[in-house]
Every structure is written in structure tokens, then in C-alpha cells.
Prior knowledge:
The protein is of the alpha/beta class. It has 9 helices and 15 strands. It has helices spanning 50-54, 125-138, 153-164, 176-184, 196-206, 222-231, 253-259, 271-287, 305-314; strands at 9-17, 20-27, 35-44, 72-79, 91-94, 103-107, 111-113, 145-149, 168-173, 189-192, 212-217, 232-240, 262-265, 298-301, 322-325. The strands form 3 sheets. Strands 3, 4, 5, 6, 7, 14 and 15 form a 7-stranded mixed beta sheet that branches.
Amino acid sequence: MTMPDAGLMMDAAIITGPGKMVTEALPLPQPGAGQVRIRLEGCGVCASNLTPWAGPEWMQFPTEPGGLGHEGWGVVDAVGDDVEGLKIGDRVAALSFHAYATHDVADADKVVPLPAKLDGQPFPGEPLGCAMNIFRRSEIKAGQTVAIIGIGFLGALLTQLATSAGARVIAISRRPYSLDVARQMGAAHCIPMEDHWQIIEEVKTLTGGTMCDCVIEAVGKQWPLDLAAELTRERGRLVVAGYHQDGARQVNMQLWNWRGIDVINAHERDPAEYIRGIREAVDAVVAGRLDPSSLYTHSFPLEQLDAALDATRDRPDGFLKALVTYK
Length: 327
């Protein structure tokens, strides 16, 4: 069947090699049964893109049009057969995978409507939902002391959520700018991530020697993981939120055994859990428990996706999260 918009075009980014990309005009994709098409307003830039952007041996170029983009939001502009609860004109966040483009297609059950209260606000649903899922699995409660290691976009969101829940947050990060952000998000104490043993001693002093009820590692490197275990109290929770995809890790099992800590790998792979998190993020932003607006520090047009990826890699002063936005 001929679609009424057949022949219309979209713009899409294609990564052609390590550190190289182009934009091309391509025919609009058409939604199949159970799918919708979204005219995207923008897409967040995820640090998980950086390894493919660098061009490891396993990476195949060119990418599919829009490929690697998975933090998109926008307005439904076409609806396939057998879709209920969504209509043309609905503003949504979506779990889709070709969102470095002006349009993408998503399964209807992976689309979350955005209420009118969020009109005009960027809403990269996937990372916001990820923060909500990690927070839920961390089981943070009022009165607890929580250390968050790594204050990027995710760490800043978790700082805000933990503070809103009534916890005392100790933020640990390398960049002075990140520690400033943590203070703005409500952190009670901020420690530069410089000297391993000095950090341990400072946390020991702040906690009267008991260490932290919960420690969230949000960096994805060996040293922060080692540090996280040292800062976790006996029978505390060590939550792994960092993206550890660059090789094997070693852990101090002697320490983990001795303290009897619970270790939570807070990553999700079930799309239904991602969607659950995105829905919870919508509710949290509407309720005011979460306000990511100040954390979107850099914005780029689609044709400058390469600059957005480079900024995400290089993290210039004042950088926290890049968005690619579309006209």
C-alpha cells in the first residue's frame, strides 16, 4: 500500500569510519504493524558510542543511517497497523536505535508518551530511565549515607535522586566542575578523586568509621570499582552502574567476603525494564524529584554529530551531557 508521505525525505547521520561521519538525505522509513514513526526533536549522546566511534577491530563501517543513536524523543508522525494508545501528534520518548536522524521507527510498546507539562523540554528517555532503574535497585532510604563515584550525567542524576530520598550523599569525582554540579544536585560532601587512601580516610572520618550504607560506582574503570568496595560498610550495598565494556575486571573478593557486602550489577537488558524506568523518569520530572535541565550542557545540530561525540570523549571544562537537536 502506498503511504501518503512516500517520496518524502529525512536526514540521517552515517558514521563512515573511525572519527568520521556524514549526513545524507534518505527516504522516510515507514512504520510496520505495531510500530510508530517519530519525527525526532533530538537525541542524547551516550558515552557507549565512544568505543564504536574510535573504530575498534570489530566495528563495521559504515553504520546504518542514524545508527548508535538511542536516546531520542519527538512527535509521532505516522502510525502502523494494530497500534493502540498512540496517535499522530503525541509527544514521546522512545527506545529506538537509529535516532541520529530526523526520523526513526519504534515498536509501539517501546514508546512512552510525554505529558504536556514537559512540552518544550528535552527528554532523552533511555539515560533518564537508566538512572531511575539504578536508583530503584540501590534501595536508597532516608538517613542513609551514600557515596557516588563519578559525577557525569548519570552520577549527577543519582545524586539528585538520593538527596530527594533523604540520603546524605558523598560525591567523588575527578573534575572540579563535576563536584560543583554535585553540590548543585544536593551532595552534602564532595571529594576530589585524586588519592585512593586519602579518599578512604576522608570517608571514614565523615562516617565515624562505619563507611557508607550504599556506594554507587558510575565510572566504568578498575580503580573506581576498587575504591567503591573500600567505601562500602559491612553488609552495605555496592552498586555497579559504570559501563565496564573495555576488558576484564579484578575484584578484592577477600574484602567483599569479609564485609559481607551485597553487590548489585544495576544494568538492564530487558526492554520492558528500560520502559519502566522511562515511565518512572517522566513521573519524577513532573513531580520535581528529578530536574535534569541544567545537566544538558552542550547542544549540536545533526551535521555536527562528530563534534558532539568528540566533546563526549574529551569532556572539556563545563561539559556534562551533549544533545543533538533537529530542526
